[in-house]
Structure to design on (432 residues):
DNA sequence: GTAACATAAATTGGCGCCAATTTTGGATAC
DNA sequence: GTATCCAAAATTGGCGCCAATTTATGTTAC
């Protein structure tokens, strides 16, 4: 059992180990297939074994890591079928609420979204992988919140994490990143114009484009 | 901290403590608001404290129980907003795949479903609360599997658990149970007839009827 | 009777420890 | 060189223990 670099990552006070490990998985610091040794994670995140165990158990419940009894945990390999199925689910959900998003899009909401889209643009130019990724999440979350179903927002946020819809695989080329950025603005345009059909089309295209590239 | 009866429930070999606690929550043995004392659960399920803790942590991650630091865990109170939102999500998902269910409904699938619907009828007459509940789940799972998206089946199964869509609240009257049974058969009829619109209507009505009664 | 306080009892939270299991490295044989 | 075996080292898994915190109970004052 080998594999990971033992860099100590300073624990942020408000984020527990689960979040830290998850972040490192999603940013590619802990690539697919990596064995996550408990004693290494203790050092990496400067925490205790019970904390590591809890984090790993939680991540295994989310099927981001796999537990192999007596051997440990490793990061799941990307699964094309899963990614595809989850994209399908996201398409279903996010297009189904397009009409509610349009109905609830007030000028201040539009303004907030524009700000977040610009922030994404900015992070594309100047940000770290993580900042970029989180800017994307922030934009999409704000968009989804328009529909007024908190459980749905949480659910989508949750299932996004289940696949390699992550920075290391999501945006392979500059062109793709820039297209995503344009699509964000186009979604806002459709919202503003009250064009539900166009919004649906954009959302679906956005998700499927990302999903296709998420396959390895 | 008080509240639960200390009956020892024989642990089934293949089900871990998480499942056992979940089962007791869903069947009403551990009602909403109940404080789940670790030492009581140890005795109840004849297991060790670490196992209890893991189970409780998992259930808290699923938001079925709430963790209050230094005080313990208690079963969440039903939340009408959550139940409603989750039903909305289920309607979106399950009606979206109606066409795929219809497309994939082969005669042997129909036959299997009829068997499961009859089994539900039988459990209505003769079964325990849990058997009845599981017969319902079995029927719906088989139906959903027709769509060919395993992640979606798993997801729906998972989100159903998040609310009081459980035996103690789902079926309050005999009439309601019997209507559910009829609806199961009608869904199969719609499948067999290839009537996607009717299937959608039935699914939506079925979910919403259940959700309405799930509120307290 | 209620409110405040102190103490004992009960419970949670987390750590250390060690048995069980796996991995690694070295020695030996071919 | 490869294959096999064995012992040492490393790691996982789970238990026991106890400090920290909360709850319950009893006493005192009003």
């Amino acid at each position: 059992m080998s594999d990971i670099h033992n860099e100590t990552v300073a624990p942020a006070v408000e984020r527990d180990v689960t979040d830290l490990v998850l972040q490192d998985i999603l940013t590619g610091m802990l690539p697919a297939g990596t064995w996550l040794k408990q004693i290494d994670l203790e050092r990496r995140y400067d925490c205790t074994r019970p904390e590591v165990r809890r984090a790993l158990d939680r991540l295994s419940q989310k099927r981001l890591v796999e537990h192999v009894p007596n051997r440990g945990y490793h990061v799941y390999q990307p699964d094309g079928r899963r990614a595809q199925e989850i994209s399908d689910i996201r398409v279903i959900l996010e297009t189904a609420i397009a009409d509610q998003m349009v109905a609830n899009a007030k000028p201040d909401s539009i303004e907030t979204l524009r700000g977040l889209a610009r922030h994404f643009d900015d992070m594309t130019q100047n940000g770290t992988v993580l900042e970029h990724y989180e800017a994307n999440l922030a934009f999409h979350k704000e968009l989804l919140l328009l529909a007024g179903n908190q459980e749905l927002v949480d659910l989508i946020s949750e299932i996004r994490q289940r696949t390699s819809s992550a920075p290391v695989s999501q945006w392979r080329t500059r062109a793709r990143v820039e297209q995503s950025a344009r699509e964000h603005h186009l979604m806002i345009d459709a919202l503003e114009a009250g064009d539900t059909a166009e919004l649906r089309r954009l959302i679906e295209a956005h998700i499927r484009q990302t999903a296709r590239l998420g396959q390895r």
